[in-house]
Each structure stands twice: as structure tokens, then as C-alpha cells.
Amino acid sequence: MSELIIKAATLLDLESGELVPGSSVRISGERIVEVAPGRRITADAPVLDAAGRTLMPGLIDAHVHAAVTTLDMPAMARRPSSRIGIEAAGLLEGMLRRGFTTVRDAGGLDRGVAEALDAGLIEGPRVFRSGRVISQTGGHGDFTPAPDEPRLCACHIHSDWFARVADGADAVRRAVREELKNGAHQIKIMASGGISSPTDPLDMVQYTAEEIRAAVTEAEARHTYVLAHAFTPEAIIQAVTAGVRSIEHGNLLDAAAARVMAEHGAFLVPTLVTLEQLAEVGRRWHYPQQSIDKLQHVLSEGEKAVHLALDAGVRVGFGTDLLGEAHPEQSRELLLRARVQSPLDVLRSATAVNAELLGRTGELGAVAPGALADLLLVAGNPLEDLSPLADSGAGIDLVMRGGEVVSSRIAG
């Protein structure tokens, strides 16, 4: 098993919030086996000199859509799956080079891309895949146009590349079972109206408590959990009380809903950057006008929601939710979140908090013995300035995933 020692690093201890110069880390295979804060490790192994750079865990993005490869939603619906897979591979590689060594795909990424990553056929972060989202008819995952003369049948589920549209608790249960059978790591449901979907008002509460509980029960049977797209307090409260583990977006969160989230131990995963980018570049890439109109209702509310969640004691993770041509702005979420939190707390959200959300505390988001060697060497002090991380990874001099250096600007 190959070993590597990183020496002369300034170790970022995210738990204490301190930087420890002159630190070393020893890696064996894909895991960290020894951490020496403030001292050098002596062992018979190759040595990489960090030359004082900041050593920190790889970042975790808990809300990506690697398979949504264009903002032109009608074109997306017509795009062949083979092309989507090729485009998704390029997007995932970009995420890794920006320092995101782990991502949670929140809907659309198929098993084939995940298998190609695992087999080393393509390069990208570690992926926790949600498979197809679960949506009610006319919900946020239902992108079929409303027909003038709908042809109704007795079936309760229909599927496309992105969603299982399922109505009723039994149909939801079946849809969830199919996604888990197909290798989904967790399940995504749509619990409120959304911006991109064509036929649902933004403030619509979607699914009943019974339907949500059916999804939660099936996920728990496989020892996993449900995340829910939700904007409004009503939708958030219904989802959380039915057992949903994380609320995605949550822009219209109020203090009462935040208290309920805290009481139930639910996470909030804000996604500020996607709203900013949709407002700035959506029209240029043919993002639907009706979606741009919906966007205005939530655009300015995201930072307020983060404040409310933190004040209530909700654990706040880190996500981006970028689509298509906006993906290169992934790292900008760090700067947007720094308007609400300290740089240290932003980095904790994108490492330790997200690791807890994924059920991988101690394995991801940490520089510690036994953790996977997902590491970054960064120029400067990220506790004072996140911009080296936020400029598409321009200040990241080395990216390591599972003990393998995948990107390096360090000589020798």
C-alpha cells in the first residue's frame, strides 16, 4: 500500500478554528493514518513539501445537479442520455478541480456515470447519488407540459430521466423502492413548488404527510434518509415532521419553521448562488421567462433564511444547486455565505456539517486519522479570506481525493 507524507503544512483545525504551522500528515492508501500538528513525521515514505500552504479537508457540496447540463430546459428534455453522461463527466471533473472532493447529487445523475467514476473511467468527486427525484403530478419534478386534453389512466407513476412522478402513498413507496434498488444513496422528494418547473406555483405545498412518511419509511428501511426541496414554512414543517432529514433551499423559512427544524434535528442546505446566477445569466441561456418571474419572489430571502436557521440552532450545510452553464460559479457560494457567517463557519458547513448530514462524520470533511485522504493545499489564510477558494479554485495548489493527487501546481 503506497504511503505519502505531507510536511511543512499550516494545518487548518476546523474544530478549534486555529491554524497550526509546521504540521505533517501521513497517508497510507486512501486514508490518513497520522496527523502531527506542529511537528514533522519521520517515516520511510515519499514526502511532499507543502511549503507553509494551508492544509484542509476537501470541500463537500450537498446539492449539485451534474446531469442538468443546460439552462435551456426544453432542450434538456430532448437531450440524449449518452450526451448528458458525457457532459456530466466534464462537470464533475470541474467540481473536483475546484476543491469539491465529495458531492451529493440532488437528482438526475444516473447509475452509469456513478459506476464510471467508481471504475476510474472518468475523474470527479465522490458522489452520493439521489437518482430520480420523487414528485407528485404537477409538482416541481413534473416537467411535462399541461395538455389541452389530458389522457388520464389508472397508472400512478410515470418516469423520465429526472423524476418519478408518483401520486399516493403506495405509488411513492414503489417509486422510492425502485430508486433504492437502482443504487440511490438517499432519496429526494419535492415538497413545495419550485422555480424551474412549469406548472406549479412557488408557494404550493406538495405531497401529503402520508406520502412523505411513505418515502421516509422506505428510506429508513435501507438505513438512509430523505431530503426535500421546500421553500415555504408550511412545506418545510410538513416535511420535517414527517421525518425528512434535510431541507433544500428553504428561502422562505420563518422563525416558527426554523424552530420545528431544530426540534426534529433537521438540516438546512441553502443554495444562494443558483438564484443569483439564474437572475444574471438565465435569460441569456433561454431559461424560461415564467421561471425568471418566479425567481424574484425568493431571490432576496436566502440570507435571511440562513440567519433564522442559525438563530434557532439548525445545522446549516452547504450546497449550490447550479444548473447547466452556471456550474463554473460553484465556488462563489463560499463568498455569498460569508455575508451571513464567518469564514470558519462557512468552511465548517462545507466540511464537517455536510459530513454529518451524509452520515460520514470522521470519514469525510476532516483531517484526522482514519479519515479519507480528501485534502486541499491552499494559498493564504482561508480564515481571513475565502477568495483563493472561491475563484474557481485558483488558490488551490493541490487537490487530493482518496489519497490520490488529482490536481497539483506544486513542483516536485
UniProtKB/TrEMBL annotation:
InterPro entries named in the record: Amidohydro-rel, Metal-dep_hydrolase_composite, Metal_Hydrolase, Metallo-dep_Hydrolase, OTAase-like
Name all Amidohydrolase-related domain ranges.
Answer: 54-406
Under PANTHER family, the record lists: ALPHA-D-RIBOSE 1-METHYLPHOSPHONATE 5-TRIPHOSPHATE DIPHOSPHATASE
Name by which UniProt lists this protein = Peptidase M38
> From which source organism is this entry?
Streptomyces alfalfae
